[in-house]
Design brief:
- The protein is mainly α.
- Helix content is 73%, strand content 0%.
- It has twelve helices and no strands.
- Helix 5 crosses helix 6, helix 5 packs across helix 8 and helix 9 packs across helix 11.
Length: 317
């Protein structure tokens, strides 16, 4: 039997998804660091002028300030841990999602019928929850590296050690509750992507080229981001640690509800959506590039698995 996308094992889909995600992140990383820093801004521009705390009025303003203060390298602070996190998160997610979907189809859908939107969301959420439990420590380390001043920034290993020394092992899982709630984000994204793709193929009769995949992925990710953004912001603030200058002026957040309540009191309803335009731009571009490149990487993965299988057959012959 010839190797195809349908017969590719879960680990193959995981490898292709992980490679696509790392490629996408490398292209949009400056937006990622900007949106993270905007999400943790706690003061107005006027008050921040009284200290060295950075305040970005927009993504472009953030880019210019970082380049001026830290150079081009500042736009890629924490890239190493972020790539590790992206690779591990997407590998784990695609593996779990493909594994769950494949086993469900074998047991309950042997005819290969179309899965309902609700079921796609359940499978996506289950895969997301498993992924979150495994990869949250990398997310915490990345957030710290992206938001701390250059003179306080440490390597991945040193950051991990600092967190454990100051907060214990549980510090590596800060923000786990909103992170688990945010499992609905990839569930909405991938569920929406599958359904929109079916509409494009079945109703519009449009071939799924990389460009069409890009647009479908962008639409799916925009929908998921708008719905879940307040908890995205809450998760980042829980994982963030203020600089030494700001540490004594900040009261630690007790949980996601505390974050949302304090932001609402200080900045109003729209404070929940601070930095959302940058988040959407980054998320849409990243997710669309991921969906577009995953098919390309999947094709190469299929070829690689076919060559491995052929090599194994030749050795056993």
């Amino acid at each position: 039997m010839a190797m195809t996308k349908e017969s590719l094992p879960p680990i193959g889909h995981a490898a292709a998804g992980s490679a696509g995600a790392m490629f996408a992140l490398s292209l949009v990383y400056p937006l990622d660091i900007i949106k993270t820093r905007i999400q943790v801004q706690t003061k107005s521009k006027k008050s921040s002028a009284e200290s060295n705390e950075e305040h970005y009025a927009s993504a472009w303003d953030g880019i210019t300030q970082i380049v001026k203060k830290e150079g081009i390298a500042g736009l890629y602070a924490g890239l190493g841990s972020s790539l590790i996190g992206t690779a591990s998160t997407n590998f784990t997610y695609f593996y779990c999602y493909s594994f769950l979907r494949e086993n469900y189809n074998k047991r309950y859908n042997p005819a290969g019928g179309t899965l309902s939107t609700a079921l796609e969301l359940v499978l996506g959420a289950a895969a997301g929850a498993l992924t979150t439990l495994i990869t949250t420590p990398v997310s915490v380390i990345t957030t710290r590296q992206q938001t701390l001043p250059a003179d306080e920034r440490q390597s991945v290993i040193e950051t991990c050690k600092s967190i454990v020394e100051e907060e214990g092992i549980k510090g590596l899982w800060r923000g786990i509750q909103p992170s688990l709630l945010l499992c609905v984000n990839p569930a909405i994204t991938y569920g929406s992507f599958e359904k929109i793709k079916q509409i494009v193929l079945g109703v519009l009769k449009v071939q799924l080229t990389p460009g069409v995949n890009f647009l479908v992925g962008a639409l799916a990710k925009t929908l998921a981001t708008v719905i879940t953004y307040p908890y995205i912001m809450a998760k980042v603030r829980l994982q963030w640690r203020p600089s030494k200058e700001m540490k004594d002026k900040m009261v630690a957040y007790k949980g996601s509800v505390d974050v949302l309540a304090r932001v609402l009191k200080q900045d109003g309803f729209f404070g929940w959506y601070k930095g959302m335009s940058t988040q959407i731009t980054k998320a849409v571009l990243s997710q669309a590039l991921l969906f577009m490149m995953k098919d390309i990487f999947t094709n190469y993965t299929v070829l690689a698995f076919a060559l491995i299988r052929a090599s194994q057959k030749a050795k056993s012959a």
